[in-house]
Design a protein that fits this description.
The complex is a heterodimer of chains A (about 60) and B (about 250).
Chain A lengths: L2 H7 L4 H47 L1
Chain B lengths: L7 H9 L1 H23 L13 H28 L4 H31 L7 H20 L5 H14 L3 H11 L19 H43 L6 H7 L3
Helix pairs in contact in B: 2-8, 3-4, 3-6, 3-8, 4-5, 4-8, 5-6, 5-7, 8-9
Classes of the chains: A mainly alpha (about 60), B mainly alpha (about 250).
Chain lengths: ~60, ~250
C-alpha cells in the first residue's frame, strides 16, 4: 500500500471520515456561495434603481 | 462603538472595508485548521482515525449553540429596543446557524456509526440538537410567513426567545441523562481533558468557523439592507412626487 492510499484509507474509517468532511465543506461552501451570489445580485439591483433615480432626478431639475 | 453602528447606512459604510479581510482570514484559518485536523493531528489511541470527525463535529456544535444564542439576543434587542439592525442580524444569522447544526448532526451520525454501532439514537443530546435544527427552520419559515415583514420579524423574535430553553437542555443533557454521547471534554470544570495535540487543531477549526460566521453574517446583513433599500426605492417610484426617495426607506424601516 502506498503512503497516499494508506492515508486515504483513514485506518479503515474512510467511509465515515471523508463523507463527514465532504458534507461540512459542501454545506458551508454552498451557504457561502449562495450568500455571495445573493449579495452581488442585491448590489446590482440597487445600483440599477439608483441610476434610474439619478437620471430622472437630472431630467426633473 | 455598537450604538454608533445602529444606523443601517453607517453599518453599510463601516462593514464594507473589513469584509474582504475577514473573508480572507477566515479562509486562511479554515485551511490551516483542515490541514491540521486531517494531516498533523494524531489518530486517537481508542478511536483511531475516526477521531478526525471530531474536528468538524465539535466546533459545528459550538457554532450551532452560539449562533442560536446570538439570534435570541438579537431578537430580544429587536423586541425591546426596536433596534433597526437587530432583526436584520437575527435573520441573517439563522440560516448560518441552521447550516452548522445540520453539519453537526450529519458528522455526528457519521461518527456514531463506527463508534457506537448506530447512526442515530433518540437520546437527550441528539434529540435536543435535532430540536435546535427545527427551531432554526421554524424561525426562518415564520419570519417569511407574513405579508407584513414587521409582523413576521416580531413573531420570529418571540419564537427565538421561547426556543432558548433548549440551549441549557443541550448543554447539560449529557450530564442529566444516561446516553451514548460522551460528556464535555473541553468546556468543563477542571480544564480540558483532551490532549493538546488534538485540542489545538480543534480550537483552530473553531476559530475558523467563528470567522466564517462573522464573514457570512456581515455579507448577509449587507444583502438584507441592500434589498430593503431597493424595496423602498421601488415603492418610492410607484408613488408620485416622493420626497428624498433614497434614504427615506432605510431611516423608517420599521
Amino acid at each position: 500500500m502506498t503512503d497516499l492510499s494508506r492515508y486515504l484509507a483513514m485506518g479503515g474509517y474512510a467511509a465515515y471520515v471523508w463523507p463527514a468532511y465532504g458534507i461540512a465543506i459542501t454545506v458551508l461552501g454552498g451557504l457561502a456561495a449562495q450568500s455571495w451570489n445573493r449579495y452581488r445580485a442585491s448590489r446590482r439591483a440597487l445600483a440599477r434603481l439608483q441610476n434610474g433615480e439619478a437620471r430622472r432626478g437630472t431630467r426633473r431639475s | 462603538m455598537i450604538s454608533s453602528l445602529a444606523n443601517p447606512a453607517r453599518f453599510m459604510r463601516a462593514s464594507s472595508r473589513p469584509l474582504p479581510w475577514l473573508a480572507g482570514i477566515a479562509a486562511a484559518v479554515l485551511g490551516l485548521g483542515l490541514f491540521w485536523a486531517l494531516v498533523l493531528a494524531p489518530p486517537d489511541y481508542q478511536q483511531g482515525e475516526s477521531v478526525r470527525i471530531m474536528f468538524v463535529h465539535v466546533p459545528a456544535a459550538w457554532m450551532a449553540l452560539s449562533i442560536y444564542l446570538f439570534v435570541a439576543v438579537a431578537s430580544a434587542v429587536a423586541l425591546v429596543w426596536r433596534h433597526p439592525l437587530a432583526e436584520v442580524a437575527a435573520q441573517a444569522a439563522a440560516p448560518i446557524g441552521a447550516a452548522f447544526t445540520f453539519v453537526c448532526l450529519a458528522t455526528g451520525s457519521l461518527w456514531g456509526r463506527p463508534m457506537w454501532g448506530t447512526w442515530w439514537v433518540w437520546d437527550a443530546r441528539l434529540t435536543s440538537v435535532l430540536v435546535l435544527f427545527f427551531l432554526y427552520l421554524g424561525y426562518i419559515a415564520l419570519v417569511s410567513a407574513f405579508d407584513d415583514p414587521g409582523r413576521g420579524a416580531r413573531a420570529g423574535s418571540v419564537l427565538a426567545l421561547v426556543g432558548i430553553v433548549n440551549l441549557p437542555i443541550i448543554k447539560f443533557s449529557v450530564d442529566w441523562w444516561n446516553t451514548l454521547h460522551q460528556p464535555a471534554s473541553v468546556m468543563r470544570l477542571g480544564g480540558p481533558s483532551i490532549d493538546v495535540s488534538m485540542l489545538v487543531p480543534l480550537l483552530v477549526m473553531a476559530a475558523g468557523f467563528g470567522l466564517l460566521f462573522a464573514t457570512l453574517l456581515l455579507l448577509r446583513m449587507r444583502t438584507a439592507l441592500n434589498e430593503k433599500k431597493a424595496r423602498a426605492l421601488r415603492l418610492g417610484e410607484s408613488l408620485p412626487a416622493s420626497p428624498e426617495p433614497g434614504e427615506a426607506g432605510l431611516a423608517v424601516s420599521r
